[in-house]
Amino acid sequence: MIFESVQPGVPDPMYNLKKRADSDLSPSKVDLGVGIYRNEQGAYQELQCVKEAKQVLAKIDLGHDYELTTGNPGFLKEASGIMFGQGGVSPAKGSCHRTSLRASNLTNWPVQLASVQTISGSGAVHLAALFISRCISPYIKVFVGVPTWGNYKPALDLVGLQTIEYRHYDPSTRSYDHDSTILAIKEAPEGSAFIFQGCCHNPTGADPTPEQWSEIVDALKVGRHLPLFDLAYQGLGQGLDEDAYAVSLCARRRLEFLACQSLSKNFALYGERCGSLHVICKDSRAAANVHDQLRCLIRWEMSSTPAYGSRLVKLVLQDGHMNADW
Ligand SMILES: Cc1ncc(COP(=O)(O)O)c(C=O)c1O
Fold this sequence. Notes:
Blueprint: H1 13-23, H2 48-60, H3 73-84, H4 109-112, E1 113-119, H5 120-136, E2 141-146, H6 152-158, E3 162-167, E4 169-170, E5 175-176, H7 178-187, E6 193-197, H8 210-222, E7 226-231, H9 240-243, H10 245-252, E8 257-262, E9 274-280, H11 284-301, H12 308-318, H13 320-325
Parallel strand pairs: 2-3, 2-6, 6-7, 7-8
Antiparallel strand pairs: 1-9, 4-5, 8-9
Helix pairs in contact: 2-12, 3-12, 5-11, 7-8, 8-10
Pyridoxal-5'-phosphate binds at residues 35, 120-122, 149, 197, 202, 230, 232, 262, 264-265, 275.
């Protein structure tokens, strides 16, 4: 008897809700559980640019080889462009021109940035936590404003990091609680880590204003804290650039930080598990070492990441027409 003593896992409200929603046959059912878009018929809606990229990919037929351990380099270049502005488009003008709106934030950015592909945003958060625990310190306290996405604490527990919760949201005003956030940052032990959602806060929808982000970043700098940004919904809030405002600000103010990126949501490639982790370092030597450590962690845990979604994203972002459509 080896498995007799295994107890049931911790219940996951999202897992149970999805199962119940899927089996509910009501014609007027609206599934507000998982953070995904649905069309008017309540069904999955593929983006036109993804449809086109699939046809292109089928024509070039790259086969099904493994990706590099650290991911598809072309995809990572485009993904970091979306996050940091080097290769992003300006959606407000509907233009397909690449903009360097935020490029000046990072001088020599490619050498200071350690970017790897991950199993979507969840995998990026996990890898970031694992990296902090293994390569920075297992004793770093990680501060998380609550209520928040239910996966942070389990992800931190999994790698032995301690989670400290503070109040992110004031239910009486139904808004982001800035005073409590600043107090948590000021009172945290020097060198703590703070998880922030850069935009579209899940589950409250309450994000800091640019002025509030500025105060947050100042306080983080004073406390020598390590920000860990989670951008699961970039482009689904105010716009690509606006949604990455806090990330840009940290880069401009020369903080070292980590940024988790989901491309599964903003490309509607949910099941393809497409994402990346970027670590912003002070110099190229640190970036090279961080990248090398991430290579090890990925290799030991999963060898490499899924190829299909990242190939599609790369194709869309590298093509003027598909990029503009996206
Ligand atoms: C705040 C937040 N972070 C990360 C994720 C991870 O998303 P995915 O792993 O699908 O990219 C989600 C998904 O719901 C989320 O809401």
